[in-house]
Amino acid sequence: MISISTRESITAVLTNHQLDAELRALIGLRAWQLDVERERPLDDTIRFVIVQPGDKPEVINAVVGFPITYDQAEQPGFEWMEDHGAWFELAYVLTDDFGMIVFVADHPDTNSVLRFNCLMVADRQMPLENKTET
């Protein structure tokens, strides 16, 4: 679980070669697109959260600030979602001038309900490791 709320933390993520290159590119793109008010601290307008395989539901919910890891998760619901293959991108508009982008790994060890919900919105087939034989 990674929370990004400063320009310095964006730089740290973008230069962390242990993180997936596609994820770093997505974060760089969104930071470039959304960080338009340079005179304001970044955490006044946007926060980025990365949900990684193995992150516990209670930690995910605490970092996000509301429950997103179970069926019928509490609102606010996301405004839109993008399926980037290995990553899902969920955009939340929390106030008139503050938003949050949550990146969710499409990985078997990612919180199963959150991943399932992303897969359903993306209208993708469930991966073979989650299918039961008949």
Number of helices: 4
Report the helical percentage: 25-40%
Quaternary state, please? Answer: single chain
Major sheet size, sense and barrel closure:
5 strands, mixed
Side-by-side strand order of the widest sheet: 1-2-5-4-3
| C-alpha Rg (nearest Å) | 15 Å
Query: Which whole number gives the mean pLDDT?
Result: 88
Distance N to C terminus: 36 Å
Range of strand content: 15-25%
Structural class: alpha+beta
Structure summary:
With 134 residues, the chain is α+β, with helices and mostly antiparallel strands. The protein contains four helices and five strands, in the order βααβαβββα.
Provide an overview of this structure.
This protein is an alpha+beta fold and 134 residues long. 31% of the residues lie in helices and 22% in strands. It is built from 4 helices and 5 strands; from the N terminus they run βααβαβββα. The chain has helices spanning 7-14, 21-34, 57-64, 112-122; strands spanning 2-4, 46-51, 80-83, 87-95, 98-105. The protein has a 5-stranded mixed β-sheet with strand order 1-2-5-4-3, with helices on both faces. Strand 4 and strand 5 form a beta hairpin. It is globular and about 45 Å long. The chain starts with a strand and ends in a 12-residue tail after the last helix. The mean pLDDT is 88.
